């Protein structure tokens, strides 16, 4: 039976206004290497690869009619793309290597207007007890004078402030959408001990019912190297030194 695979790759982009976005430094290179490795060595065993990434992310070099490219921008775009695929196709494996952003812009506001709103609340209070932390926090959470984020905010605002909010955790929704899919998740930390990285990755695997986690350390990525350990419920499956080794190990495990 040929396998249908989803590979998510690269960063997500979260809009602040019509032109400004929050993103991260992910390039999608690892996802592209995984796709090329599967296509090159297991082509006969693949039904289809759905390759989900942002427009500027790396794409597989091997051209194949078995690959369907799906372009997304935000975290919500990615979730909707996954829902659509899972609703219509039987997916065997998902390699969720996308570096989904942790934060999205909630609103932008001029500092002067936020100060005015707080000052007005203080001035209109009948007594000091009315000005509680909760009251002030409610202004920060939902101020009245936010900038219009559907157009470009002026380039000449000297005190522009942006409130960030958490994005949905994509990995936590995957097994809810497709309980039988083999889920390979990824975890990136920086400059930590191997033990700490293993413990964090293991908790991520358990929390999200993932089958495997590829645990990376940013301090060990660069100059052609990409150290990672692949873990499952029994422990460390294998340690890898390059993107190609990671892809080949995943290939060995999943096919």
Short note summarizing the structure:
The protein is an alpha/beta fold and 255 residues long. Helices cover 33% and strands 30% of the residues.
Task: Give the topology.
Blueprint: E1 3-9, E2 14-15, E3 21-22, H1 29-41, E4 46-53, E5 67-71, H2 75-88, E6 93-96, E7 103-110, H3 111-124, H4 133-141, E8 160-166, H5 170-177, E9 182-189, H6 194-207, E10 212-222, E11 225-232, E12 235-240, H7 243-254
Helix pairs in contact: 1-7, 2-5
Describe this structure in words.
- The protein has seven helices and twelve strands.
- By secondary structure, it is of the alpha/beta class.
- It has two domains: 3-101 and 169-254, CoaB-like (Rossmann fold, 3-Layer(aba) Sandwich); 105-165, no CATH class.
- Strands 5-4-1-6-9-10-11-12 form an eight-stranded mixed beta sheet. Strands 2-3 form a two-stranded antiparallel ribbon.
- α1 packs across α7 (243-254).
- The chain is elongated, with a radius of gyration of 22 Å.
So what's the CATH class of the largest domain?
Alpha Beta
The end-to-end span amounts to 11 Å
Second-tier CATH architecture of the largest domain: 3-Layer(aba) Sandwich
Question: Any low-confidence stretches, pLDDT <50, length ≥5?
Answer: none
Shape: elongated
Number of separate structural domains: 2
Please give the number of β-strands: 12
Give the integer mean of the pLDDT values: 96
User: What percentage of the residues does DSSP assign to strands (E)?
Assistant: 25-35%
How many helix segments? Answer: 7
The SS-based structural class is alpha/beta
- Largest beta sheet: what is the strand line-up? 5-4-1-6-9-10-11-12
CATH superfamily of the largest domain: CoaB-like
Range of helix content: 25-40%
CA-based gyration radius: 22 Å
């Amino acid at each position: 039976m040929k396998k249908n695979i989803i590979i998510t790759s690269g960063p997500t982009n979260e809009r602040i206004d019509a032109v400004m976005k929050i993103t991260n430094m992910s390039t999608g290179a690892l996802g592209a290497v995984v796709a090329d490795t599967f296509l090159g060595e297991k082509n006969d065993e693949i039904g289809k690869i759905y390759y989900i990434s942002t427009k500027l992310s790396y794409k597989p070099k091997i051209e194949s009619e078995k690959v369907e490219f799906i372009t997304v921008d935000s975290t919500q775009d990615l979730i909707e793309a996954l829902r659509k695929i899972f609703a219509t196709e039987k997916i065997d494996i998902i390699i969720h290597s996308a570096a989904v952003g942790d934060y999205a812009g909630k609103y932008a506001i001029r500092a002067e207007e936020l100060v005015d709103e707080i000052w007005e609340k203080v001035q209109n209070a009948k007594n000091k007890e009315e000005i509680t932390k909760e009251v002030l926090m409610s202004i920060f959470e939902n101020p009245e004078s936010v900038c219009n984020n559907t157009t470009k905010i002026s380039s000449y605002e000297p005190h522009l402030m942006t409130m960030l909010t958490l994005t949905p955790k994509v990995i936590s929704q995957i097994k809810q959408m497709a309980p039988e899919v083999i889920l390979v998740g990824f975890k990136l930390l920086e400059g930590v001990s191997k033990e700490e990285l293993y413990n964090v990755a293991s908790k991520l695997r358990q929390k999200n019912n993932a089958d495997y986690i590829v645990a990376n350390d940013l301090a060990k990525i660069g100059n052609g190297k990409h150290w990672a350990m692949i873990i499952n419920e029994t422990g460390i499956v294998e340690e890898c030194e390059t993107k190609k080794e990671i892809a080949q190990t995943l290939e060995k495990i999943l096919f």
